[in-house]
From TrEMBL:
Basic and acidic residues biased stretches: 262-274
UniProt name for this protein: Uncharacterized protein
Residue stretches of biased makeup (Polar residues): 275-287
Organism encoding this protein: Rhizopus microsporus var. microsporus
Region annotation Disordered: where it falls in the sequence: 262-292
Domain of life: Eukaryota
Length: 507
């Protein structure tokens, strides 16, 4: 091809390639077919990995990758700028995550989105005592979004909505009115946040530049997208909520024993902690503090060791005294754990309550009916079609749960949209807290720690803004010794921007 181009250099490129393909079409096809055939039969070649999806990362001190020839004053100024930017970016991520969590709270009170509120006690048995740690009595009502606002509602917590939050509260100029008027649902939530002191432009007084906040915003939106990439949170809360509601309705005796046992353990633990104050660094957990599954795993391991020692006694009688002592040790350890087994049997003792197998069967029936888009309300006939052997004492609680939860279940085509999953997830979280099952609570939004720094993501433009920020603004030159005076020039000369600060060979 190169020889052909040298002979026809006057012609235009498109004409040259057309003539070349027309004159050499059959030979090109033959060569390609041979390469494909060889590739299909050659299984001994090395495996080829795509470099586009493979990344290697490592932690390294900044002092090791900064250019060695920089003056000490400039090096110190650069380190101070990076440290200051790292702190401010972490504060920005915390603040915007705080606003996103406040948006979830305001969904309960937004008249444009929900229809009234829902009293949690209505879905629980009469006389059910809520958890002492929960102060929530009312939660989000069913969706009542008009069709004209449905498109805007579906954008909640998506990339466009988070970008609007950024421009509304953090932008130096702020979102334009014409753009805000296109999002009435989101504006209704912003107006509701004003009662909590979160007003427009609340956080715009920051020294971070646009590209620095833009890079941090990418991390926030990515974390939110990864949390809701699948309906895992939705289905997980549905399973937990149905489990708890069926327990409190259909196995009240076993549930009462469980709640009293948990309360007793909590009181014993708090009493023990108050009597024996121990430094957090020197505190060690005991066997009783471990979760039930962890205790079971330990017990199985001890039983396995005992059987192994007994087998060695049979194989090597001359060493029986040594292994016999090991068996005695395991038996003593097992006897120490009998109290925990007795407590567990107390919880799961024989009562007139339904069996766990029956509860799992009813849970499967309820879940199937809730996810069925063909029905909006349910009767006893619908329940019997799905489960023919349902009894009268089971029917009323099941119908109460079905008709109370059905308005919150999104249609199948909307089940991957964050906004349509949120009402049910908020209801499930509040109900689980009300019933005393905090362990099933699920986060609906990233909640970064306020006591830790977040990674600083930098590129050419953001690094240029960091280095040229006042005070002590630094001048950056490209390879031709011309001053880089704008973000656009920094983007075009990003290799020079990075090389002005970092030792690229060391990296």
């Amino acid at each position: 091809l190169r020889y052909y181009l040298d002979k026809n250099s006057i012609k235009k490129n498109d004409v040259v390639f057309k003539e070349y393909v027309q004159g050499n079409f059959h030979s090109i096809v033959r060569n390609l077919r041979e390469e494909v055939t060889e590739g299909e039969h050659d299984d001994t070649g090395p495996e080829v990995h795509s470099t586009d999806i493979e990344y290697r990362t490592c932690s390294v001190a900044v002092n090791r990758i900064i250019r060695k020839g920089l003056p000490l004053e400039i090096k110190q100024a650069i380190l101070e700028k990076l440290e200051s930017t790292l702190t401010q970016v972490s504060d920005y991520i915390i603040n915007i995550s705080f606003i996103m969590n406040m948006v979830l709270l305001e969904l309960r009170n937004c008249d444009m989105i929900t229809h009234g509120s829902f009293t949690i006690a209505n879905i629980l048995p009469d006389g059910f005592l809520p958890s002492q740690d929960c102060t929530i009595e009312h939660t989000i009502g069913p969706l009542s979004v008009a069709d004209s606002f449905m498109k805007d509602f579906s954008m909640l917590m998506e990339h466009q909505h988070i970008s609007l939050i950024h421009s509304y509260y953090f932008g130096s100029v702020g979102a334009k009115e014409t753009n805000l008027n296109k999002h009435p649902v989101q504006m209704a939530i912003f107006k509701a946040l004003e009662s909590s002191g979160i007003e427009r432009g609340k956080f715009k007084e920051t020294s971070l530049k646009s590209y620095e906040m833009g890079n941090a915003l990418v991390d926030v939106t990515t974390n939110m997208k990864n949390m809701w990439s699948t309906p895992k949170i939705f289905y997980g809360l549905m399973n937990s909520l149905l489990d708890v509601l069926l327990r409190v309705h259909l196995v009240p005796n076993r549930e009462a024993k469980y709640r009293s046992y948990i309360q007793k353990k909590a009181e014993e633990r708090s009493k023990k902690d108050s009597q024996q104050p121990v430094d957090d660094n020197s505190r060690t957990s005991t066997f009783a503090d471990l979760p039930r599954n962890a205790r079971r795993n330990i017990a199985r391991g001890e039983e396995y060791k005992k059987k192994k020692y007994e087998a060695k006694i049979k194989r090597k009688p001359e060493e029986a005294h040594k292994w016999k002592a090991k068996v005695d040790t395991q038996l003593a350890s097992k006897n120490d754990d009998e109290d925990d087994v007795e407590e567990e049997e107390l919880i799961t003792g024989n009562t007139t309550d339904l069996t766990r197998r029956r509860l799992r069967c009813l849970k499967s029936v309820l879940k199937s009916l809730l996810l069925d888009d063909r029905k909006d309300e349910f009767s006893i006939d619908d329940l019997k079609k799905e489960c023919s052997d349902v009894e009268e004492k089971e029917a009323y609680p099941c119908l109460l749960i079905l008709n109370a939860l059905k308005p919150y279940i999104p249609k199948k085509k909307e089940r991957f949209i964050i906004a349509h999953q949120l009402p049910f997830c908020i209801l499930a979280n509040d109900t689980l807290l009300y019933a005393g099952y905090r362990k099933f609570y699920r986060k609906l939004c990233p909640q970064p720690s306020a006591s830790s720094l977040h990674a600083l993501r930098i590129d050419g433009p953001s690094l240029y803004q960091i280095l040229t920020r006042l005070p002590c603004a630094l001048a950056i030159f490209n390879y031709d010794n011309y001053l880089i005076e704008s973000v656009e020039e920094a983007r075009q000369n990003k290799d020079a921007v990075f090389s002005s600060l970092f030792d690229m060979n060391a990296i």
